[in-house]
Design a protein that fits this description.
This is EF-hand domain-containing protein. The chain is mainly α. The chain folds into two domains: 189 residues, no CATH class; 146 residues, EF-hand (Recoverin, domain 1), CATH 1.10.238.10. It has 13 helices and no strands. Helix 1 runs antiparallel to helix 12, helix 2 packs antiparallel against helix 11 and helix 4 crosses helix 5. It is elongated and about 95 Å long.
């Protein structure tokens, strides 16, 4: 996520600087459309986030069932499940099929497939035994006749083994003798489910009256927009008057005082959340910061570009954009190569702010 924010921010200012330097204001409209498209994407993304989360969770459950069944087959194998070359042992798979086929009719029913999911500990991933059997039937039954032939069984297990060997959980030392990658894959899917399950529990909240909540949110957004529009001109006049009365350069007020005043609430709330020193609080802090950076890049720049295009204004801030780009690249590259950050790194990030003003 952090790398995405860095890429988005850097590309925004790089694109603006390059096109303005080379072509002037010719591409203002295209840039406006580009920023508006990203803005719509950021607004609609949270709507589809729960659906994406549920799909990821279902996929992890499916992988967990597959890895569990492969472990069961390995334990029940009348010989080695794979050959010395690592390929599936067809003879052993045929014996396994016949052992599972209790009524010896040449097909595996749902009742007979139940023997494959016993011992997988489905409660760890909140999956019912019946749902696990349905997943197996869906993977095996390619002919859609609600039963599994021997050829379908062998093809399905072969596909599973190939996917398991090619997964990230596969260890370098996992060979046909140990088949350690099955244990690795099973443990990895359990951890992934635990992680996604925690995220799902945190993100899903019950809303008693969704319609009234949506109406209230829209009204509050409209109210905030009206307030911002009403106080925009007085704010500019107040800044100019304050600068004239105190003999303080308007540059200092615009680039130092106002940003600190307008963003102080986000900084205070981030400090409050981070001071609790809990995983959920830290996640909320990062989510708030990421949201602020994203919306500042997309919403504010979209509005600004719209004004520049509609009013036919001239963009004359190439040096400022270049300075912002340099700061974004420095911070982004540093954050991309590390996953943990000591306290002293925050001091370096803070120093980039006065450094950019000096430039």
């Amino acid at each position: 996520m952090g790398n995405l924010i860095f890429f988005q921010t850097a590309m925004t200012y790089l694109q603006r600087f390059a096109l303005t330097t080379l072509f002037g204001d010719k591409y203002q409209f295209l840039q406006l459309v580009n920023k508006f498209t990203f803005l719509v994407f950021e607004i609609t993304r949270p709507v589809f986030q729960p659906w994406i989360q549920s799909r990821r969770l279902a996929y992890v459950k499916h992988k967990h069932v597959i890895s569990g069944v492969l472990k069961q087959l390995r334990m029940r194998a009348l010989g080695r499940l794979c050959t010395d070359q690592g390929a599936p042992n067809i003879e052993v798979l045929e014996k396994l099929f016949k052992a599972i086929d209790e009524n010896e009719d040449g097909y595996l029913s749902r009742t007979e497939l139940k023997a494959l999911v016993v011992g997988i500990r489905l409660e760890e991933i909140n999956l019912h035994e019946k749902d696990a059997i349905e997943k197996l039937m869906k993977d095996f039954d390619t002919s859609h006749d609600h039963r599994v032939e021997m050829s379908e069984f062998i093809a399905g297990v072969t596909k599973w083994l190939t996917e398991a060997r090619g997964s990230e959980a596969s260890s370098p030392e996992a060979g046909p003798d140990t088949m350690k990658y099955l244990d690795d894959l099973h443990e990895q899917t359990r951890r992934e489910h635990h992680f996604l399950g925690d995220q799902s529990d945190e993100s899903v909240e019950t809303v008693e009256n969704p319609r009234s909540t949506v109406i209230k949110a829209v009204l509050l957004l409209l109210l905030g927009t009206v307030i911002a529009a009403v106080f925009a001109d007085p704010l500019v006049d107040a800044v100019n008057n304050f600068s004239s009365a105190t003999s303080i350069p308007s540059f200092f007020i615009s680039f130092i005082a106002l940003p600190l005043a307008t963003n102080s609430s986000e900084a205070v709330s981030a400090i409050i959340f981070a001071s609790r020193k809990k995983l959920r609080s830290a996640s909320l802090t990062f989510s708030e910061l990421y949201g602020a950076v994203t919306m500042n890049n997309l919403l504010c720049l979209s509005v600004f570009l719209a004004l520049v295009y509609i009013r036919g204004l001239t963009w004359d801030f190439s040096s400022e954009v270049l300075v912002i780009l340099i700061v974004c690249v420095v911070v982004g590259v540093f954050a991309s190569v590390r996953s943990t950050f000591p306290l002293w790194t925050s001091l370096l990030a803070f120093l980039l702010y006065p450094f950019s003003l000096v430039l």
